[in-house]
Amino acid sequence: MRRTLLRNATLYTRNLLHQSAPAFDASTRPQLRLFCSNETPPPVPQIDDVDNKELKAQIESYFKGDEQVLPSIMETILKRKLSGKHEDTDDELMEELRMRPLDDVDDRDFESDFENIHDTDEEIDDLYNARDVVMKRMVKDEYFNMDDKKWDDIVEDGIKHGLLRDTKECEEILEDMLSWDKLLPDEIKQKVEVKFNELGDMCEKGELEPEEAYEQFKKFEDEIVAEYLDKMEKEEAPQFDDTTVPDKKKDLDDPPGEGPILRWQTRVVFAPGGDAWHPKNRKVKLSVTVKELGLSKYQFRRLRELVGKRYHPGRDELTITSERFEHREENRKDCLRTLLHLIEEAGKANKLVDDARSSYVKERLRANPAFMERLHAKSMRLRESNQVPA
Amino acid sequence: MMTRVSLKNVLSAVINQGAAEARAWIFGHQLNPAGNKTPHKILRMKLFGEKVAQWYPHDIKKDDPLVMARQEQERLSKLEMLKRRGKGPPKKGQGRRAAKRNK
Q1: Where is this region: Disordered (chain A) (predicted)?
Q2: CA torsion, points A273, A274, A277, A279, in degrees to nearest 10?
Q3: Cα(A183)–Cα(A189) distance, integer angstroms
């Protein structure tokens, strides 16, 4: 804790002289932010005092041209201030140092530090030629200056090569990216939270220093990530094919259900008065495509014989009309009954054809004298063999 | 020796076997292969007596006996006046139709 406090104070002191600080690692800053604000600094014990001779020597070396001594000088001043023995003289000294400008300052140091800290885009030498510069960058980098058209092309290319088979899956991935904190399962979240709280408590009690706590937390996070990756590897990832996959779009116009499509035509007359019955409402017309009935050749011919002019060869359409009953729903039932009877009656054609073919073959065989002779002889032999045991 | 019949013709004839009876049964037709005279045409018709009667609206006078009696009385009075003037109905055998028959 003392080191952190000292370092923080030193940083603040350095900024007063408008000199850029060296670059920090990414892990150091969040560490400070995570743990410093929650802790109350304990009383600082006695610090060694620095005498005037040593301080004077450091200042003289600095003025002679040694710039590296400046941090140690400020540290020395801070130590003397904390000891509280040289308040008057050190204040005057700090004022003197602040007001005195430095003659020779290396711009390279400032520039190098600045560039290390802040990474800016490349400078454009000729601003009047911005169009060419942009075109060069677009040629060099595919993802430069992205717009909706480019995104659509990329998505289309992905779909074409099978990388993005399902747009819905892509949307799910985007939603996951939007709400990334919900990705991990609750177990892992609870583990991480418990570990974090535990380490925080240990830091507050003073059992652990913030650096060590952060290191332990980092290790724990790495372990959790590795564990999760192992889990993911167990679940086999889908393999993508490089070949072009055609878009298999379902026919959305096909209604659900089985069997042929029945097309009904009815008339509804809206007449004044309460009674909805009208003689024109009675008639019902039912159309069906014969190919969808799944009939064989002979069944189809029998059906055509049965229905006569009700069948339209051009459209392959069978139309059944009924106005036998007074109400439309009764007529619809009658149409359906008629259709079912027609299908049943047409189905008999196969059996008739089989029987006719069998009888035809039998007639041909019976008309053959050689076959009849052999059949007769065989039957005689069978009869004689049966009589022997008797 | 019987004349040979090809299989295709046999099958074609078999497919249409019993088709007329089946059609009649399915669609509710009345089979009449000989073309005899039958009352089916009249039996098939829907009952249309009420619909014909609707053509003439209901006259409410016929429900009132007083009105009908007065009309009958007026008719008799008118007939009496015609008879007195020699304009009544003719006797049997002296009308226009009977005279035409003799001629």
Answers
A1: 235-257
A2: -10
A3: 10
Phi and psi dihedrals of B48, rounded to 5?
-120, 10
Q: CB-side exposure of A334: number of CA atoms within 13 Å?
A: 19
Q: How near does any CA of chain A get to the CA of B29, in Å?
A: 12
Annotated domain spans of chain B: 58-89
Select from A301, A345, A352 the Cβ nearest to the Cβ of B26: A345
At CB < 8 Å, which residues of chain B contact A? 2, 7, 10-12, 14-17, 19, 22-23, 25-28
Nearest partner of A323 among A368, A387, A266, judged by Cα: A266
Q: What is the DSSP letter of A314?
A: T
Residue numbers in A near B17 (CB within 8 A):
352
Which residue type is seen at A44? V
Q: Do B15 and A305 touch (CB under 8 A)?
A: yes
Across chain A, mean pLDDT equals 75
CA distance A132 to A374: 103
Quote the tokens at residue B11.
């099958």
CB of A306 within 8 Å of a chain B CB? The answer is yes
Question: Confidence class of residue B66 from pLDDT cuts 50, 70 and 90?
Answer: very high
**Helix or strand or coil: residue A281?**
helix
How far is Cα A333 from Cα A130, in angstroms, rounded to an integer?
78
- Using CA atoms, how far apart are residues A113 and A205, in angstroms rounded to an integer? 38
Read off the pLDDT of each residue in A124-130 and give the average, rounded to a whole number: 73
In angstroms, what separates the C-alpha of A304 from chain B's closest C-alpha? Answer: 10
Q: Do B11 and A357 touch (CB under 8 A)?
A: yes
Q: List residues bridging with A312 in a β-sheet.
A: A317
For residues A306-319, give the mean pLDDT: 93
Among B71, B53, B26, CA closest to A306:
B26
Comparing CA positions, the residue from A314, A315, A313, A335 lying closest to residue A324 is: A335
